[in-house]
Amino acid sequence: MSRKIYCIAGFKPKPGHEAAAFEALQALEPNTHREDGCLRYTVTRKIDSPFAQGDSYPIVFHETWANREAFEAHCQRREIQAFFETQVESPDGLIEDANVCVYTDEPAEFDAPRF
């Protein structure tokens, strides 16, 4: 059974702050990569393509965590909490809106043995 947690964290920068917001999010990568349960943590920015024209926030983190505990520990790190407090929740922050969602790759009624 997979215990992995997949997180998609989208960010909408305030107008004119796209580059600064991307850099601020990139700054979170090095320490996060040091976390034991971090399998992937990559910030990306949306680009134009005629083959992918969907709507999305322009900056998105793609995260894979070993398990729920690792993801939740990450969310409680001071650096991550400080980012949300100063850049998302604060009126002076770079981010207008954020949308963070977690996913599993298990079917809803998955019945594999648990170890």
Outline the structure in words.
With 115 residues, the chain is α+β, with helices and mostly antiparallel strands. It has a domain at 5-46 and 56-92: 2-Layer Sandwich (Alpha-Beta Plaits), CATH 3.30.70.100. It contains 4 helices and 4 strands. Strands 2-3-1-4 form a 4-stranded antiparallel sheet. The longest helix is centred in the last third of the chain and has 12 residues, at 78-89. It is globular. The mean pLDDT is 94.
CATH class of one domain: Alpha Beta
Q: Give the class from helix and strand content and strand pairing.
A: alpha+beta
In DSSP terms, counting alpha (H) and pi (I) runs of 4 or more, how many helices?
A: 4
User: Which stretches of 5+ consecutive residues score pLDDT under 50?
Assistant: none
How far apart, in Å, are the first and last alpha carbons?
9 Å
Gyration radius from CA atoms, angstroms = 16 Å
Helical amount: 25-40%
Shape: globular
- The mean pLDDT is 94
Instruction: Give the assembly state of these chains.
Output: single chain
Number of strands: 4
**In sequence order, what are the helices and strands, one letter per element?**
EHHEEHHE
